[in-house]
Structure formats: C-alpha cells, structure tokens
User: What shape does this take?
Amino acid sequence: PAPRRGGESAGRTSPRQDSSSPDAAASTELTVFGRRQVALPGRDDRVVSTGLADRLKERQAALRQLRLRRVVRAAVVVVAIVLVVWALAFSPLLGLQTQRISVAGSDGSVSDKQVREVLAAYEGDSLLRLDTGRLSTQVSDKLVRVRWAQVTRAWPHGLRVHLTMRVPVATVQDSDGYQVLDNEAVVLERVSEPPSGLVNIVPDPAAQASGPQRISAKQVAAVTQVVGSLTPETLAQVSSGSATEAGQVTLTLSSGASVVWGNNQDNALKARVLATLMTTTASIYDVSSPHRPTTRSADAAATTTAAPSPTS
Assistant: This one.
C-alpha cells in the first residue's frame, strides 16, 4: 500500500473528534446564547434576536408592558366610577332644591311652605341619597294635621309630597277651651269655641250623679273611633257622645234621640245598620248587637229591625 502522506494524515480529523473538542463546545455555546441578527425580507430596519437569553428578556419586557397596560386600564375605570358616583351622589348635579318641592292633598290646614320647612334640612342633598320613607315619616310626625305623607322623587331637583290629612270629628272641653280631635283622638288644635259640625264629647251621664266627672283619654278614644266610622249623613245628625270607663258608647242626635252603640267592635257594620235605622223615626236606636238591632219610641214597645248584611 502507498504510504500515507503526513500532511494529509495530520490535517484530517474525524467528526467525532471535532464535536468533542473544546473549540467545538465553545462554538455551540455561542450559537445558543449569542445574538444573531437576521434581516427580514422587505424590512431592512427590523432585527430578530435568535439567542435564547435575548428572547427571554424580550418576553419578560412584553409581560411587563401587558401588566402595565392592565393596571392603567383598571385605574382609569376606577377613576371613572369614582367621578360618576361623586357627580350623581355628592355634587349639585342632582341636589334637592326646596323651591321645587310640590305638595298635594292638603285641606288648607297645612301649607306648602310648612312642608318645605320640614324638608329644608335636606337642601342640596342628592336625590339618590334621600330616604323617601324617612322623609315621609318626618312630614307626618312634625305636622300634626297630616295623618300620612308619601314623598317621591321629582327628577332632577325636586320632590313630590302627597298628604293624607286628619279629619276633625269631635271636640272635648278642657281648662283652656276646646280640643279638636280626629278619629284617633289626636289633638289637632285648641280653640276657644267648639266648631260647628263636630261631635262634642261629654262626661258619662250615669256617672254625673255622683259629681262632676273628668273625661278620660280612654273615653275620648272610644267616642272618636265610633264617630269616625259614621257616614257623613249620619255624622251631621250627631250632636254629642259619651262613653263609660268600660268603653260603652252612647250618641245623642240633634233630634234628641239617642243611639246605644255599645263597644267598639264591628264599628263599620254598626254604622251601616244605624244609617238604615235612622230612615224611621224613633227615640232610641240600639245597634249594640248589629245583627239584631232595635228601635224604640217613647210611646211604643221595642221593635226589631233586620240588619243589612256585612258586605252591603
């Protein structure tokens, strides 16, 4: 065989030797962690990093930018919500203006000005923050002639107040004159002379025999509840009323006849029965048992009159 050429033999190396040499390892490491710039076709100004370390840095930078954008968006949303809440609930945008409070339902005993004065403390408060139930209670509590009030919002700056008034039905004399009462025995006002058309509450005649009697609050309440249940036509014919301490009520009509009412049970039914009985002339109308009412005349025996059904 031909002798090997020294130069040729010395210059050749096997692939295994190349891959295991230190220079080859260094070359591989540089390829992985180094930076190689590649020009994109048509985009000479853009460079793509192909090294692993650079791509990790770029990914981290992209994540930071994404988080920053999310934080900025969230901050903008929060600020917007705060501004909207402030504008609607705390700014003058929806603030109450007392001159824009309208009042309906008054019988003339309560003026619009009085209602506005009750609600004046809420001037400038946003309508969104007003508790209309609480306002309704305040109006009825501070204005004694108001039985019930309903307050609703009238956007953007007003309120609507609908009043249900207390109706005076009776008077009772005291040391300062006469108290005017409604059917719940609430004192509406005090006057020097009893107004016409109201029932005067007097002491129990049976108890007067033992001396002057003071009318108790229980007696006043019993009479006012009965009077308050009467129809307007019947009420117009009642001049006075009294009650015992046990709550047994008797009414006196302007004709001189009397009405034996009894206790406060079935007041509505008794009122309908009495209206029917009064179509006949009698000196005593007894509705204490409304299903078996009776009428009596001064010169006649007691007669039983059929009562109307409770639903009539």
